[in-house]
Amino acid sequence: MSSIKCSAPGKIYLFGEHAVVYGKNAICCAVDLRTTVTATVNDGIIINSLQGETALDHTLYPYVSTVIETIEKFISFPGVKLDIISDIPVGSGIGSSAAVTIATLQAMNLLFKCKMDLETIAHLGHTIETKIQGAASPTDTYVSTMGGIIMIPAKRKLPTLDCKVIIGNTGKFASTKELVSHVSMLRNNHTDILDSILSTIGELSIDGEQFVSKKAYKTIGTLMDINQGLLDAIGVNNQELNSLIYAARNNNAIGSKLTGAGGGGCMFALAESKHVHKIADGITKAGGESIITNFTNEGVRIED
Ligand code: MEV
Is the pTM of this model over 0.85? Predict the structure, then answer.
């Protein structure tokens, strides 16, 4: 076959971002917003998306270019054309870089018959993210590869949830590196207090696992709201996120919190179907871009 199309999902943290950096538990979930990559055998290298068409280009396409160089170490090939389309907002806590990395790795793996299994794809994806970002948790690439709702660090897959997910994008870029260092600095200055908050966030995930397994949505929502309060306490919330989070709560969200590093980027709410449009409108009126989606059990997959 001279062409393969693969897609990989984005992710949200139900609980536990930042605490996971300190080895605490977190629950991270794949959502049905996907990046799709079509890999076609070609004479040279072409990378194409709405961002533009180039050859290997580490400035415009750092993740995809590094995937190509990684695959070249496994197998020699004449060249490849990669066509990329994505539903995932870029650089906003929904795992867009992990999704493009994993979808490209799997499309090239299958096209050039490299025989990598999913564990290898997830591992290579993490190595690539770390190379580009300096530091990266393996969570995003693992969840994008495997899909589902995953207890971290055990990598245990939990039953999926059937409620709707509404993402609200503040449109404000925030650097994960800076937010992670902010928490680290706060912890250096107030070690006992920060350790206590980070441990409590970890316990929310441990408690949360039981309620996810029982699909006890109301309690999951309550724990999400508590987690949000603790993220505010460690200084990674901001006014824009808060406006969207309260817009969702005021319109019957089951629970709402930021996802990812915070300081901008995205929040999300869980919702019953009957309240989805009201919540999405509330987020839009509060100045955010809303995206309605679902949890997904499917990680990286071949598309027709
Ligand atoms: C960022 O998506 C999540 C953080 O916990 C950082 C990380 O886990 O690498 C803030």
Answer: yes
